[in-house]
Amino acid sequence: MNWEAIGAIGEILGAAAVFVSLIYLAVQIRANHKEVRLAAMHEISVEFRESISTFDDPQMAELLTRVNLQDDTLTDAETLQLWLECSASSGCGRRPTINIEREGWTSTSGIP
To answer: Would you list the domain boundaries of the chain?
Structure first.
């Protein structure tokens, strides 16, 4: 065997190693993509569960139902409770407005 044959075998082995490493890289990228996608789906489901946990409290569920039915008979305490709950969570969907009247001035603001 001469040096040219040994060099050709080395080049073939090198090309095969590059090919195998490219296949390995493709498999790893695909697996990482799946993991990232699953993590994002998990995060969405956790946030959704947290956002609907408001409805676990019967009083809060009743308040939100009254707001959705456009019931204008909410007391100040109920309005404050709803505002605080919606502010603490990621929101309550439809954003009702709160009218604040104090000593001659009026402010209307949406629940954040």
So the answer is: 1-56, 58-110
Instruction: Answer for the pair 108, 98: CB distance below 8 angstroms, yes or no.
Output: yes
Question: How confident is the model at residue 107, as a pLDDT?
Answer: 44
Q: Name the band, by pLDDT with cuts 50, 70 and 90, for residue 109.
A: very low
The sign of the dihedral angle between the CA atoms of 76, 79, 81, 87 is negative
Q: What is the DSSP letter of 99?
A: E
* Type of residue at 73: T
63/84 Cα distance (integer angstroms): 12
Query: Does the pLDDT at position 43 exceed 90?
Result: yes
